[in-house]
Amino acid sequence: MTDLSPLPAVPPVAIDAPVTRLLKRGALIVLGPLYFLVIAFAPLTCARRRGFRGWYWRLVKRACSRLLWLLGIRVQISDADRAALAADVGSLIVINHRSHLDGFALMDAIPDDKWFTFAAKKELCDAALLRTGFKGAGLVEIDRKSGKHAMQVLAEAVRTMPARKSVVLFPEGTRATTPSLGAFKAGAVVVARDAGRSIRPIVIHGSDRLLPRGRFFPKSGTIRVQVLAPFTCDTAAPVDDDVARLRATMMAAFDGA
């Protein structure tokens, strides 16, 4: 009789030797606060300078890449997928959410040719230390207390973005705890329809094995970023049909890894 029980999870393979990991993490303890201070306070003195948003966003991306390197984490993305993102226009980006590492991995993987930003809840944008940096970086501020209003604000922001710039959305809304993808909310599809944009699905693999819920410090290993073909909404069909089709597309890629 065939055993249909789930296969055990494969433990992540560390990319650094134990001594190297120890040295890097020691350096992280020293350099981490310095990175944070530069990222947090640079906007306070430079936000009004010409071209600030471009160089500040690249600064944040480089800081994320260095943080992952110090943690012994490598982000793997194929040359073809990187080229597809570099040439991507007229889209919003949708990714699955497995771990607090997902945003850092995405910042590392997306090439500088592709402009992107995140939607941030209003409470974060109101924080005194973060407000200037978030606004300077072009994050889209949304008030999640009013779902309909938040979608209207987000759709309007997307409509006015340059074609090469995309907002990044997590359709699961929170980190999934299921073996596969969690349930998708309709927001990304609604915004894509209202703004007349396609959706560029990105699937993150392995981040939850390095930093699962309840763990403070991540393990060393590899996170894989997979870029899927553009997804076009069918405005003649119900929104829920598009949501189900998008989830099925991303789930096939996630489960087939």
From TrEMBL:
<comment type="pathway">
    <text>Lipid metabolism.</text>
</comment>
<keyword id="KW-0808">Transferase</keyword>
<keyword id="KW-0812">Transmembrane</keyword>
<keyword id="KW-0472">Membrane</keyword>
<feature type="domain" description="Phospholipid/glycerol acyltransferase">
    <location>
        <begin position="91"/>
        <end position="207"/>
    </location>
</feature>
<feature type="transmembrane region" description="Helical">
    <location>
        <begin position="26"/>
        <end position="47"/>
    </location>
</feature>
<keyword id="KW-1133">Transmembrane helix</keyword>
<dbReference type="GO" id="GO:0016746">
    <property type="term" value="F:acyltransferase activity"/>
</dbReference>
<dbReference type="Pfam" id="PF01553">
    <property type="entry name" value="Acyltransferase"/>
</dbReference>
<protein>
    <submittedName>
        <fullName>Lysophospholipid acyltransferase family protein</fullName>
    </submittedName>
</protein>
<dbReference type="InterPro" id="IPR002123">
    <property type="entry name" value="Plipid/glycerol_acylTrfase"/>
</dbReference>
<keyword id="KW-0012">Acyltransferase</keyword>
